[in-house]
Design brief:
This protein is of the alpha+beta class. The chain has 11 helices and 15 strands. Strand 13 and strand 14 form a beta hairpin. Helix 1 packs across helix 5, helix 6 packs antiparallel against helix 7 and helix 7 packs across helix 10. The longest helix is centred in the middle third of the chain and has 35 residues.
Amino acid sequence: MYLTHRTEIFPTQEQQEMLAKMFGYRRLVFNKALEYLLDKYKNLKDKRKEIKKKEIMDLRKLIFRTEDPYKTLLKEIPNQVLDTALEDLIQALESLWKEGKEIKYRSKKSENTARLYKKNDTNFQPTGHNHIHVVKLKTIKLAEKLRFDGDVKIITFTKEFKRYFASITVDVVTDFSIKKTGRHIGFDWGLKTTLTGVDDRFIVEYNFDNSKLIKLDNRINKMHKNLSSHNSSSKNYLKARTKLEKAYKNRTNYQEDQIKKWASELVRRYDYIVMEDLRMGFMFKNKNLSKKAGEAVYYKIKTMFTRKFNQYGKKLYLVSNTFPSTQMCSNCGKVKQGKKKLKLSNRTYKCSCGFKEDRDVNAAINIYNCQDIKENVI
Protein backbone atom coordinates (compact mmCIF):
# COMPACT_ATOMS: atom_id res chain seq x y z
CA MET A 1 0.00 0.00 0.00
CA TYR A 2 1.24 3.47 -0.90
CA LEU A 3 0.76 6.22 1.70
CA THR A 4 1.92 9.84 1.50
CA HIS A 5 3.23 12.03 4.29
CA ARG A 6 3.35 15.77 3.53
CA THR A 7 5.61 17.85 5.75
CA GLU A 8 7.53 21.10 5.72
CA ILE A 9 11.25 20.90 4.99
CA PHE A 10 14.11 23.25 5.86
CA PRO A 11 16.61 23.25 2.99
CA THR A 12 19.97 25.00 3.20
CA GLN A 13 20.76 27.88 0.87
CA GLU A 14 22.57 25.48 -1.47
CA GLN A 15 19.58 23.11 -1.45
CA GLN A 16 17.18 26.00 -2.14
CA GLU A 17 19.22 26.88 -5.23
CA MET A 18 19.08 23.25 -6.37
CA LEU A 19 15.30 23.13 -5.82
CA ALA A 20 14.90 26.36 -7.82
CA LYS A 21 16.79 24.74 -10.72
CA MET A 22 14.57 21.65 -10.47
CA PHE A 23 11.37 23.74 -10.50
CA GLY A 24 12.63 25.79 -13.44
CA TYR A 25 13.77 22.75 -15.42
CA ARG A 26 10.42 21.04 -14.96
CA ARG A 27 8.61 24.10 -16.33
CA LEU A 28 11.12 24.40 -19.18
CA VAL A 29 10.70 20.76 -20.25
CA PHE A 30 6.91 20.81 -20.00
CA ASN A 31 6.57 24.02 -22.00
CA LYS A 32 9.09 22.97 -24.66
CA ALA A 33 7.45 19.57 -25.13
CA LEU A 34 3.99 21.17 -25.33
CA GLU A 35 5.30 23.66 -27.89
CA TYR A 36 6.74 20.76 -29.93
CA LEU A 37 3.37 18.96 -29.98
CA LEU A 38 1.44 22.12 -30.87
CA ASP A 39 3.81 22.87 -33.76
CA LYS A 40 3.47 19.32 -35.08
CA TYR A 41 -0.24 18.59 -34.48
CA LYS A 42 -1.82 22.06 -34.08
CA ASN A 43 -5.09 20.87 -32.50
CA LEU A 44 -4.17 18.39 -29.74
CA LYS A 45 -7.76 17.65 -28.73
CA ASP A 46 -8.51 15.78 -31.97
CA LYS A 47 -5.19 13.89 -32.14
CA ARG A 48 -5.71 11.26 -29.46
CA LYS A 49 -5.03 8.34 -31.81
CA GLU A 50 -1.95 9.97 -33.33
CA ILE A 51 -0.08 11.17 -30.24
CA LYS A 52 1.62 8.24 -28.51
CA LYS A 53 3.27 8.16 -25.10
CA LYS A 54 6.46 6.79 -26.67
CA GLU A 55 6.75 9.83 -28.95
CA ILE A 56 6.65 12.18 -25.95
CA MET A 57 9.16 10.17 -23.93
CA ASP A 58 11.46 9.99 -26.98
CA LEU A 59 11.86 13.77 -26.68
CA ARG A 60 14.43 12.98 -23.99
CA LYS A 61 16.93 11.88 -26.63
CA LEU A 62 15.63 14.11 -29.41
CA ILE A 63 15.86 17.40 -27.48
CA PHE A 64 16.54 17.39 -23.75
CA ARG A 65 19.68 15.21 -23.59
CA THR A 66 21.26 16.54 -26.78
CA GLU A 67 20.49 20.27 -27.00
CA ASP A 68 21.54 23.14 -24.78
CA PRO A 69 20.52 24.59 -22.37
CA TYR A 70 18.53 21.45 -21.49
CA LYS A 71 21.57 19.15 -21.67
CA THR A 72 23.74 21.38 -19.46
CA LEU A 73 21.02 21.92 -16.84
CA LEU A 74 20.27 18.21 -16.65
CA LYS A 75 23.82 17.50 -15.47
CA GLU A 76 23.22 19.66 -12.38
CA ILE A 77 19.91 18.22 -11.20
CA PRO A 78 18.40 14.74 -10.63
CA ASN A 79 17.54 13.12 -14.00
CA GLN A 80 14.09 12.06 -12.76
CA VAL A 81 12.87 15.66 -13.09
CA LEU A 82 12.99 15.25 -16.89
CA ASP A 83 10.98 12.02 -16.86
CA THR A 84 8.32 13.28 -14.45
CA ALA A 85 7.90 16.55 -16.39
CA LEU A 86 7.10 14.57 -19.56
CA GLU A 87 4.80 12.28 -17.56
CA ASP A 88 2.95 15.40 -16.36
CA LEU A 89 2.40 16.40 -19.98
CA ILE A 90 1.03 12.94 -20.78
CA GLN A 91 -1.35 13.26 -17.82
CA ALA A 92 -2.42 16.72 -19.04
CA LEU A 93 -3.18 15.24 -22.47
CA GLU A 94 -5.32 12.52 -20.87
CA SER A 95 -7.28 15.22 -19.01
CA LEU A 96 -7.72 17.11 -22.28
CA TRP A 97 -9.06 14.05 -24.10
CA LYS A 98 -11.27 12.74 -21.29
CA GLU A 99 -12.51 15.93 -19.62
CA GLY A 100 -11.76 18.65 -22.17
CA LYS A 101 -9.44 20.39 -19.70
CA GLU A 102 -7.26 22.89 -21.56
CA ILE A 103 -3.48 22.46 -21.31
CA LYS A 104 -1.73 25.63 -20.21
CA TYR A 105 1.93 26.51 -20.22
CA ARG A 106 3.53 26.25 -16.79
CA SER A 107 4.30 29.59 -15.13
CA LYS A 108 6.72 30.51 -12.35
CA LYS A 109 3.90 32.01 -10.29
CA SER A 110 1.95 28.78 -9.89
CA GLU A 111 4.25 25.87 -10.73
CA ASN A 112 7.03 25.73 -8.16
CA THR A 113 7.01 21.96 -7.88
CA ALA A 114 9.15 18.99 -8.91
CA ARG A 115 8.79 15.24 -8.47
CA LEU A 116 11.44 12.54 -8.07
CA TYR A 117 10.93 8.78 -8.14
CA LYS A 118 13.13 5.96 -6.87
CA LYS A 119 15.47 4.49 -9.48
CA ASN A 120 17.80 2.64 -7.12
CA ASP A 121 18.50 2.14 -3.41
CA THR A 122 20.66 5.29 -3.16
CA ASN A 123 18.00 7.78 -4.35
CA PHE A 124 16.12 8.14 -1.06
CA GLN A 125 17.41 7.15 2.36
CA PRO A 126 15.67 8.27 5.60
CA THR A 127 18.43 9.11 8.08
CA GLY A 128 18.20 10.00 11.74
CA HIS A 129 15.12 11.29 13.57
CA ASN A 130 13.78 13.78 11.02
CA HIS A 131 16.10 13.81 8.01
CA ILE A 132 16.08 12.21 4.58
CA HIS A 133 18.92 11.87 2.07
CA VAL A 134 17.92 12.68 -1.54
CA VAL A 135 20.16 12.22 -4.57
CA LYS A 136 22.09 15.45 -5.44
CA LEU A 137 20.19 17.34 -2.71
CA LYS A 138 22.00 15.45 0.04
CA THR A 139 20.46 15.41 3.55
CA ILE A 140 17.30 17.51 4.01
CA LYS A 141 15.81 18.34 7.38
CA LEU A 142 12.10 17.52 7.86
CA ALA A 143 9.75 19.35 10.23
CA GLU A 144 8.70 16.00 11.72
CA LYS A 145 9.69 12.36 11.67
CA LEU A 146 8.50 10.37 8.66
CA ARG A 147 5.11 8.99 9.70
CA PHE A 148 5.30 5.66 7.86
CA ASP A 149 7.93 2.93 7.88
CA GLY A 150 8.67 1.46 4.48
CA ASP A 151 10.33 1.96 1.13
CA VAL A 152 10.27 5.60 -0.08
CA LYS A 153 9.10 5.59 -3.73
CA ILE A 154 8.31 9.21 -4.68
CA ILE A 155 9.07 12.65 -3.28
CA THR A 156 7.32 15.77 -4.56
CA PHE A 157 8.87 19.09 -3.59
CA THR A 158 6.82 22.31 -3.60
CA LYS A 159 7.44 25.93 -2.67
CA GLU A 160 4.55 27.93 -1.24
CA PHE A 161 4.96 31.57 -0.17
CA LYS A 162 8.68 31.17 0.61
CA ARG A 163 8.19 27.88 2.51
CA TYR A 164 9.23 24.45 1.23
CA PHE A 165 7.25 21.22 1.54
CA ALA A 166 7.81 17.57 0.62
CA SER A 167 5.13 14.96 -0.08
CA ILE A 168 6.84 11.62 0.60
CA THR A 169 5.12 8.50 -0.81
CA VAL A 170 6.04 5.32 1.04
CA ASP A 171 5.35 1.67 0.18
CA VAL A 172 4.27 0.31 3.58
CA VAL A 173 3.70 -3.29 4.60
CA THR A 174 1.84 -2.51 7.84
CA ASP A 175 -1.69 -3.93 8.11
CA PHE A 176 -4.00 -0.97 8.78
CA SER A 177 -7.22 -2.99 8.64
CA ILE A 178 -9.59 -2.47 11.56
CA LYS A 179 -12.54 -4.41 12.96
CA LYS A 180 -15.58 -4.66 10.69
CA THR A 181 -18.79 -3.08 11.96
CA GLY A 182 -21.28 -4.55 9.47
CA ARG A 183 -22.69 -1.09 8.79
CA HIS A 184 -22.66 1.38 5.92
CA ILE A 185 -23.98 4.90 5.28
CA GLY A 186 -25.38 6.78 2.29
CA PHE A 187 -24.46 10.43 1.71
CA ASP A 188 -26.19 13.14 -0.30
CA TRP A 189 -24.28 16.24 -1.40
CA GLY A 190 -25.79 19.62 -0.61
CA LEU A 191 -25.15 23.35 -0.73
CA LYS A 192 -26.84 24.21 2.56
CA THR A 193 -25.31 21.19 4.33
CA THR A 194 -22.19 19.77 2.67
CA LEU A 195 -23.00 16.13 3.48
CA THR A 196 -26.24 14.62 4.76
CA GLY A 197 -25.93 10.96 5.70
CA VAL A 198 -28.35 8.20 6.64
CA ASP A 199 -27.48 4.78 8.07
CA ASP A 200 -29.55 2.07 9.74
CA ARG A 201 -29.90 4.14 12.94
CA PHE A 202 -29.13 7.83 12.56
CA ILE A 203 -29.22 10.90 10.37
CA VAL A 204 -25.83 12.64 10.38
CA GLU A 205 -24.70 15.96 8.91
CA TYR A 206 -21.22 17.23 8.10
CA ASN A 207 -20.67 20.88 7.38
CA PHE A 208 -17.87 23.42 7.65
CA ASP A 209 -18.09 26.03 10.41
CA ASN A 210 -19.73 28.95 8.62
CA SER A 211 -18.43 31.56 11.08
CA LYS A 212 -14.89 30.22 10.59
CA LEU A 213 -15.22 30.40 6.79
CA ILE A 214 -16.60 33.96 6.98
CA LYS A 215 -13.61 34.99 9.09
CA LEU A 216 -11.17 33.41 6.62
CA ASP A 217 -13.00 34.93 3.63
CA ASN A 218 -12.91 38.38 5.23
CA ARG A 219 -9.16 38.00 5.62
CA ILE A 220 -8.84 37.08 1.93
CA ASN A 221 -10.95 40.08 0.86
CA LYS A 222 -8.83 42.37 3.01
CA MET A 223 -5.63 41.02 1.45
CA HIS A 224 -7.11 41.52 -2.05
CA LYS A 225 -7.81 45.18 -1.30
CA ASN A 226 -4.31 45.59 0.14
CA LEU A 227 -2.80 44.02 -2.99
CA SER A 228 -4.73 46.30 -5.35
CA SER A 229 -3.40 49.39 -3.59
CA HIS A 230 0.23 48.65 -4.57
CA ASN A 231 2.11 49.02 -7.83
CA SER A 232 2.67 45.59 -9.39
CA SER A 233 6.40 46.29 -9.80
CA SER A 234 7.01 47.28 -6.15
CA LYS A 235 8.35 45.21 -3.26
CA ASN A 236 5.22 45.99 -1.24
CA TYR A 237 3.16 44.34 -3.97
CA LEU A 238 5.19 41.13 -3.61
CA LYS A 239 4.75 41.21 0.18
CA ALA A 240 0.99 41.76 -0.19
CA ARG A 241 0.74 38.91 -2.70
CA THR A 242 2.53 36.57 -0.28
CA LYS A 243 0.07 37.50 2.47
CA LEU A 244 -2.84 36.84 0.10
CA GLU A 245 -1.41 33.41 -0.77
CA LYS A 246 -1.14 32.62 2.93
CA ALA A 247 -4.77 33.67 3.47
CA TYR A 248 -5.94 31.31 0.74
CA LYS A 249 -3.73 28.53 2.11
CA ASN A 250 -5.20 28.98 5.62
CA ARG A 251 -8.68 28.49 4.20
CA THR A 252 -7.60 25.35 2.32
CA ASN A 253 -5.84 23.98 5.41
CA TYR A 254 -8.97 24.47 7.53
CA GLN A 255 -11.16 22.58 5.07
CA GLU A 256 -8.67 19.74 4.60
CA ASP A 257 -8.31 19.37 8.38
CA GLN A 258 -12.09 19.07 8.76
CA ILE A 259 -12.37 16.53 5.93
CA LYS A 260 -9.63 14.38 7.51
CA LYS A 261 -11.49 14.41 10.85
CA TRP A 262 -14.73 13.41 9.14
CA ALA A 263 -12.96 10.58 7.29
CA SER A 264 -11.34 9.25 10.49
CA GLU A 265 -14.70 9.22 12.26
CA LEU A 266 -16.47 7.46 9.39
CA VAL A 267 -13.83 4.76 8.88
CA ARG A 268 -14.24 3.69 12.52
CA ARG A 269 -18.04 3.50 12.26
CA TYR A 270 -18.67 1.95 8.84
CA ASP A 271 -17.38 -0.77 6.53
CA TYR A 272 -18.16 1.33 3.46
CA ILE A 273 -19.90 4.54 2.43
CA VAL A 274 -22.01 5.29 -0.64
CA MET A 275 -22.07 8.66 -2.41
CA GLU A 276 -23.55 10.04 -5.58
CA ASP A 277 -21.09 10.34 -8.47
CA LEU A 278 -21.97 14.00 -8.83
CA ARG A 279 -21.07 16.01 -11.93
CA MET A 280 -20.43 19.62 -10.91
CA GLY A 281 -20.28 21.12 -14.42
CA PHE A 282 -23.86 22.39 -14.43
CA MET A 283 -23.39 24.06 -11.03
CA PHE A 284 -20.25 25.92 -12.10
CA LYS A 285 -22.14 27.27 -15.12
CA ASN A 286 -24.80 28.74 -12.80
CA LYS A 287 -23.57 32.11 -11.50
CA ASN A 288 -25.71 31.76 -8.37
CA LEU A 289 -24.29 28.35 -7.45
CA SER A 290 -20.71 28.30 -8.78
CA LYS A 291 -19.07 30.02 -5.78
CA LYS A 292 -20.91 27.89 -3.24
CA ALA A 293 -20.20 24.69 -5.18
CA GLY A 294 -16.50 25.54 -5.40
CA GLU A 295 -16.28 26.25 -1.68
CA ALA A 296 -17.86 22.89 -0.88
CA VAL A 297 -14.80 21.09 -2.40
CA TYR A 298 -16.82 18.00 -3.39
CA TYR A 299 -14.02 16.33 -5.35
CA LYS A 300 -11.52 16.78 -2.51
CA ILE A 301 -13.95 15.23 -0.02
CA LYS A 302 -14.58 12.22 -2.26
CA THR A 303 -10.85 11.71 -2.89
CA MET A 304 -9.76 12.04 0.75
CA PHE A 305 -12.56 9.75 1.95
CA THR A 306 -11.58 7.13 -0.64
CA ARG A 307 -7.92 7.20 0.40
CA LYS A 308 -8.75 6.88 4.09
CA PHE A 309 -11.12 3.94 3.53
CA ASN A 310 -8.67 2.19 1.20
CA GLN A 311 -5.93 2.60 3.81
CA TYR A 312 -7.99 0.67 6.36
CA GLY A 313 -9.19 -2.03 3.99
CA LYS A 314 -12.61 -0.49 3.44
CA LYS A 315 -14.34 1.02 0.40
CA LEU A 316 -16.17 4.06 -0.94
CA TYR A 317 -18.82 3.31 -3.55
CA LEU A 318 -20.52 5.61 -6.03
CA VAL A 319 -24.09 5.74 -7.27
CA SER A 320 -24.54 6.81 -10.89
CA ASN A 321 -25.26 10.50 -11.38
CA THR A 322 -28.35 9.45 -13.38
CA PHE A 323 -29.86 7.80 -10.28
CA PRO A 324 -32.89 9.99 -9.28
CA SER A 325 -32.02 10.15 -5.58
CA THR A 326 -33.57 13.61 -5.10
CA GLN A 327 -36.72 12.99 -7.17
CA MET A 328 -37.50 9.51 -5.83
CA CYS A 329 -39.72 8.90 -2.81
CA SER A 330 -37.80 6.79 -0.31
CA ASN A 331 -41.09 5.42 1.04
CA CYS A 332 -42.94 4.20 -2.08
CA GLY A 333 -40.32 4.55 -4.84
CA LYS A 334 -42.32 6.93 -7.01
CA VAL A 335 -40.19 9.34 -9.08
CA LYS A 336 -41.27 12.93 -9.70
CA GLN A 337 -41.18 13.90 -13.37
CA GLY A 338 -41.89 16.88 -15.58
CA LYS A 339 -43.34 19.92 -13.83
CA LYS A 340 -43.59 18.02 -10.55
CA LYS A 341 -39.79 17.74 -10.24
CA LEU A 342 -38.22 19.35 -7.18
CA LYS A 343 -36.31 22.55 -7.82
CA LEU A 344 -33.31 23.67 -5.77
CA SER A 345 -35.57 26.07 -3.89
CA ASN A 346 -37.82 23.19 -2.70
CA ARG A 347 -36.31 22.01 0.57
CA THR A 348 -38.98 19.47 1.52
CA TYR A 349 -39.93 16.32 -0.37
CA LYS A 350 -43.68 15.62 -0.42
CA CYS A 351 -45.16 12.52 -2.06
CA SER A 352 -48.74 11.59 -2.97
CA CYS A 353 -48.38 8.55 -0.69
CA GLY A 354 -48.31 10.93 2.28
CA PHE A 355 -44.56 10.76 2.87
CA LYS A 356 -42.91 14.05 3.86
CA GLU A 357 -39.20 14.56 4.57
CA ASP A 358 -36.30 16.98 4.15
CA ARG A 359 -35.10 16.67 0.53
CA ASP A 360 -31.46 15.92 1.51
CA VAL A 361 -32.49 13.25 4.02
CA ASN A 362 -34.83 11.65 1.46
CA ALA A 363 -32.02 11.57 -1.12
CA ALA A 364 -29.58 10.09 1.42
CA ILE A 365 -32.06 7.30 2.23
CA ASN A 366 -32.34 6.45 -1.46
CA ILE A 367 -28.56 6.37 -1.82
CA TYR A 368 -28.26 4.21 1.31
CA ASN A 369 -30.71 1.67 -0.15
CA CYS A 370 -29.33 1.73 -3.72
CA GLN A 371 -27.84 -1.56 -4.92
CA ASP A 372 -26.42 -0.35 -8.26
CA ILE A 373 -23.07 0.95 -7.01
CA LYS A 374 -19.46 0.92 -8.20
CA GLU A 375 -16.18 1.28 -6.32
CA ASN A 376 -14.48 4.67 -6.55
CA VAL A 377 -10.97 4.30 -7.97
CA ILE A 378 -8.41 7.11 -7.68
